[in-house]
Amino acid sequence: MMIRCRSREVKPTTEGLNEVVMRSSHRERTASSCRSAGLEKYLKINHSVTMKRDSFHLTTLVILVSIILTSVHPMTDGLRLNPYGGYEDLTITIGSEVPPIACQQLIQNLQTIFSSASDYLHEATFRKVYFHRLIIVVPPTWDTRACGKYLPASQTSASTVANAEFRIGLEHPVFGHAPYTQQSLGCQKPGDFISMSYLYMMQYNETGQVASIADRAVVHEWAKFRYGVFEEKGYENDPIYPVEYHKGGPRDDGRKPTSCANGLLKGNWSESCSRNPSGKNCIFIPSITENDNLTSSIMSCPHLPTVKWFCDSLTHNPLAPTKHNFLCAKKSVKEIIFSHPDFRNLTSSSSRSDRGVTPEFVIKQLVQPRFVLLIEETGNMNLRDVWKYLKLAIRKFIKYDLPTGTQIGLVTVSTDLRTLANMTVLDENLRGTLAEKLPNYPNIETSNGGLSLRKGITHAINVMQSYNLIMTLFLGILRSFLFLITLFSTQTCQTRETIDSRKLAKPINS
C-alpha cells in the first residue's frame, strides 16, 4: 500500500498506534504528512487542522477514522535459507479444529518427525540443506496448560498463519490423513502449502518410534512445495497419470509400473489388473522386502527403507507417464531441484559436515487482532454527508472485513468521549448488532466543535487494557470457583464416609 504525500509516494510506517493524520492550511494543498498502518480503507479529505498542545481544534473540516491500537507482536521475516544451508523460520500451524487435548503429544511428535526429516533431507541433497529453525503455532482458542512442558514461548499474528508452509488440521476428503501439497503453479514453481491431518502425526507413541514413512513423507512433500517437482508414480483410474504403462511386446509382458527407480521395481499387481485389460482399478504395490537394492526415487517410493535419493539424469525414466515428466519436460527431479536458487547461492564451504542438522523448535500461540475505532463526532461531520458515508464504511468493516474472533471496540471523540462498544469478540451473531452501534447522526449537543485527540487515544487504550483486566479477573474467579467446588465435593465425600463408618460400627440392640 502506498500513500501519496506532497505529490510523492512514501511507504507507510508501522506503529502500535495506527493513525492517519492529515494537515493543510488550504483545501488546494495536499497533505504534508501521513502515517498509517493496519488500515486498508480509510477516508481522507484535505482541510486544515490547527494543532494545539493537548488537542486538535478544527478550523474547517477533517475526517479522522483511525484504528488507534492493535495487538502488535513481533513478526518473522518468513522462510529463508541461512548461509549454511539451514531453512529458518519454517512455520507449522495447527488449526483451531484440532482438539487442545492433543497439544502435548502432537508437538512432541512434530519435533521427532521433523528432526528425522531434517536428517533425511540433508542426506538426499548431498549434505546441502536441512531444517534449522521451525516455528510451531498453536490456535488462540487453546488452553495451553494442555501442552504440558511445551508451553508457547511467545505470541504471533495472523499473518504468520497465512504464510505457513505446513498446516495441521482434520482429514481431507480426497487425500485423507496423509500429507499433500497444493501446487497451483507449474514446474520449478513453489507450492501454496503442505497440509496433513493431526491424526497422521498422532499415531506415534511417546517413545519416539517414528515410522520411516512420516519423515520421508515430509521430505517428499517439501520437494514439491519448495522446488516445484511432482510425483513420479501413477494414480488409480487416472487416464493422464495411470498406474501402468506398456513398453513393447505383448500386453502382459510389457506392463511396467509408473515409477522412477535405479533398478527394477518389484511388487505385486492387484487382481483387477489381469481381469481388466483396460487397467481399471489396477494397483501396483511395491514390495518392502524385495527392493533392497533400490536407492531412488524419493518422489516415487519414499516408503521403501533403502530409498534415499532423487532420480538423476542416469536413473530418470522419461518414458513413464508421471506427472513430473508431463509438467517438467521429462527432466529428472534432481536436475530441477539443484537448479533452484537455494542451491545456486550456496558456496562450497557452506554445508560443513561438522554442523548438526537437528532443528530448533519455537512454540508460539496465535492471537486474534484487536482494534479500537476512534471516530470523530463533531458538528462538522454533518457537512457534505460525511457522517453518512463514514457510517457505511465502518459498518462494512465490521460486518464483512474483520475475521471472526477479532476483538473490536468503538469510541467517539469530540470534546467529550463516548464508548459505544467495549471490547467485543466478533462472531456471526454479533456483527450486525455491533455494526449498528454507530448512530444515524452525530451527537453534537455536548460538543463545542473541538476535538481532543489525545484524550481519545488515551481512553481507547484504557478500553483495551480494561478488557484484558476483566478477562484476567474472570479467569481467576472461575478457577477459584472450580477449586472451591472440588474442595467442597472432597469434604462432602469424606463426611459421608465418616458417617457411614460410624453407622457400621454402632451395635445393634437385640
Distance between the termini: 96 Å
How would you characterize the largest beta sheet? 7 strands, mixed
Strand % is: 15-25%
Structural class: alpha/beta
What is the CA-atom radius of gyration, in angstroms?
31 Å
* Uncertain segments: 1-76, 206-210, 471-483
Q: Please work out how many helical segments DSSP would assign.
A: 11
Number of strands: 23
Please give the share of residues in helix.
25-40%
Overall geometric form: elongated
Mean pLDDT: 74
Strand order of the largest sheet: 11-19-10-8-12-14-13
Question: Secondary-structure map with pairings?
Answer:
Elements: E1 3-5, E2 8-10, E3 49-51, E4 56-58, E5 65-69, E6 80-81, E7 86-88, E8 90-94, H1 103-124, E9 130-131, E10 133-138, E11 154-156, H2 158-162, E12 166-169, E13 180-182, E14 193-197, H3 198-202, H4 212-227, E15 244-246, E16 255-257, E17 267-269, H5 271-275, E18 284-286, H6 323-327, H7 333-337, H8 341-344, E19 360-366, E20 370-376, H9 386-401, E21 407-413, E22 417-425, H10 430-435, E23 450-451, H11 453-505
Parallel strand pairs: 7-9, 8-10, 8-12, 10-19, 11-19, 12-14, 20-21
Antiparallel strand pairs: 1-2, 3-4, 4-23, 5-20, 6-7, 13-14, 15-16, 17-18, 21-22
Summarize the structure in words.
- By secondary structure, the protein is α/β, with parallel strands linked by helices.
- The protein has eleven helices and 23 strands.
- It has helices spanning 103-124, 158-162, 198-202, 212-227, 271-275, 323-327, 333-337, 341-344, 386-401, 430-435, 453-505; strands at residues 3-5, 8-10, 49-51, 56-58, 65-69, 80-81, 86-88, 90-94, 130-131, 133-138, 154-156, 166-169, 180-182, 193-197, 244-246, 255-257, 267-269, 284-286, 360-366, 370-376, 407-413, 417-425, 450-451.
- The strands form seven sheets. Strands 11-19-10-8-12-14-13 form a seven-stranded mixed beta sheet. The protein has a four-stranded mixed beta sheet with strand order 5-20-21-22, with helices on one face.
- β1 (3-5) and β2 form a beta hairpin.
- The N and C termini lie far apart (96 Å).
